Structures are given as C-alpha cells and as structure tokens.
Amino acid sequence: MDVQVRNGSFHYPGGAPVLRNVNFEFDGRGVFAVLGPNGAGKTTLLKCLLGLMPWSTGESLFNGKPLSDWHRTDFWQRAAYVPQAKLSNLASLSIAEYVVLGRSARIGLFSSPGKADWIHAQKALEEVGIPHLSRRLCSEVSGGQLQLAAIARALANDPELLILDEPESNLDFRNQALILEVIDRLTERGPGVILNTHFPAHALSRAKTGLLVPRGEPPVFAPASEIFTEAALSKLFGIDVKIRTLQFGSKTLPVVAALP
Ligand SMILES: Nc1ncnc2c1ncn2[C@@H]1O[C@H](COP(=O)(O)OP(=O)(O)OP(=O)(O)O)[C@@H](O)[C@H]1O
C-alpha cells in the first residue's frame, strides 16, 4: 500500500509544535525506516499517520486516497500497527486470544473468531517463533515475549502494510535477529513495513528510503543511502557516529558505533 504524508504538523493541545513540515512517500515495498532521538516525535508521527491522533495541519494518503475517505474497516483490514509493548488491560487473555484479536477487522462486530481465524493466529505465532506460548496468559510472559506476540497479532491480519514502533526495543539479541528475519520474509512476500527503530544498523541494512526526525526541526525524507550516513547520523544524535561493514560469507552487515 502506497503511503504519503503531505505538510503534516502536530502539537498537543496548548503545547509547542512536536512535528512540522512532515512530507514523505513510501511506495509500500520493502522497508521504510524512521529514525530519530528520544522525544523527537516519531511515535506521534506514526499515530498521526494512521489517524489515531489528528494532524493539526496536513494529511495522510494511502494508495493516493486521503485517510478520511477510507472506510475504517477496509483500512484496518489492510494495515496493522504494532505500538510499543504495553501490557495494558489484556493481561487476562491467553497469548492465542490476544493474537486472534489481530483478526478483528475481518471478524464481524458481533461474531466470534472462527476456525480460520485461530489457524491464522497460530501461524502468526509460529512465524515469530513462540507457538509454544499460545496457552500462556499475557500476564505470564516476559516483556520481549509479549512484544513478539504483538507482532504476531499484527501478522494474523495478513496486512499489506505493517507499521512497527520500536519492535526490537524489548528483545534480546537473538529475538532482534528473529524480528529482522520476519521483516525480511514478509517484505519478500509483498507487505511493506514502516519501521520506527532506535537501531541505525537495522535501518541501514533494511530500508530503501527513510525519514530522519530531528528534535524541533522538520523531518528529512530521502533514500537510505543519503540519510543513514555518518555525517547525518552524527548530526541527528549529536554524537560522533562511525559506520563500518562486516563481511560474513555472502552477507554484508553494517555496524554502527557512537563514539563518546
Ligand atoms: N500526551 C502528551 N501530551 C503532551 N506531550 C506529549 C504527549 N505524549 C508525548 N508528548 C511529547 O511529545 C514529544 C514527542 O513524543 P513521542 O513519543 O512522539 O517521541 P518519540 O520520538 O517517539 O520518542 P521515543 O524515541 O523516546 O519513543 C515528546 O516531547 C513528548 O514529551
């Protein structure tokens, strides 16, 4: 699904502007990365993009159509959003029940999930490597496992567009790699991924295009090769950043270091 933001700006009621002059386009193929320091407005940007909070000015368009013209159910059958992990009020659900909720936009308002919905949920749990946790309560798994379940919940919806807000932040080294693998498999099959990440190496290794979100300045939209550079990242984070590549057989992996 093609995604565009035109002239987006946002301020909380009575507050200073958090975002201004947000302009970007993602063709819905591969990975689009969002990178910036804490508090710059990346989560706010994702919420405004998806209409979960209203842009103060500007608009989001999906497949060229303003979000306001989309039927909500139609939109949420195609898009899935994974916010930063929170247990909230879902603690009493099993992981399988939590994941099947990802099918909500495809299940009638007064209907219960059918066999096909449970199969989708189980497949999604397998995709993120935690099918064995399906009967466990959400309150009985770790923060990282809950994060994996949240991603499974989004995958259960078979989205065309997946929006991930810091999906790796709660995860150990192995599970971070697992999520990147899931993203790779997914984007090969078709769905596009918008990835808000605190890991420049993840943005650098996956994204074709992206958005740098500095604090208090308009975001910079450009091809990854232009914005995920030592100079741009050093300026963005206010610290000397060095990028090197490591070769492992046929794989080239970027390594990004911040030098104090
Ligand atoms: N409900 C709110 N009311 C007022 N200000 C808020 C609210 N939520 C967030 N903010 C402020 O808006 C700014 C942007 O917050 P946001 O969560 O979008 O940043 P972020 O770039 O996603 O940060 P992080 O990388 O730390 O997750 C911050 O300065 C934050 O303090």
UniProtKB/TrEMBL annotation:
It holds the Pfam family ABC_tran. Keywords: ATP-binding, Cell membrane, Membrane, Nucleotide-binding, Transport. Gene3D superfamilies: P-loop containing nucleotide triphosphate hydrolases. SUPFAM superfamilies: P-loop containing nucleoside triphosphate hydrolases. One of its GO terms (molecular function) is ATP binding. It comes from the Bacteria. InterPro entries: AAA+_ATPase, ABC_transporter-like_ATP-bd, ABC_transporter-like_CS, Metal_Ion_Import_ABC, P-loop_NTPase. Residues 3-240 form the ABC transporter domain. SMART domains: AAA (SM00382). The keyword Transport applies. This is ABC transporter ATP-binding protein.
